[in-house]
Known about the structure:
4-stranded antiparallel sheet
Amino acid sequence: MNEFQIGTDAVEGGHLGWIRKVHRATNEVLKDSRGEPIVFSTRDAAKAAAGEAIVAYLNTPMLRDGARVERMSKAEALFKPRRPSAGGENGKLA
């Protein structure tokens, strides 16, 4: 199915957390910095970590063939309201 999902699998010694991205057909098990699967002591801990991992993935900058999408930042520069500077007087904008 083409949908984001998170889940857990029971393994010896605990639980694995996993995420599934829309463009992939398989689950991606959460791994540590060495590339080893992380075994969580409880199902809830594994599911919470999977939730955090999918949110982190969804909040990464959009990429196009390895290049960061610049349209969004250009549009934000045009349409985002400016904030008063820290030292601004009488509500003047920076």
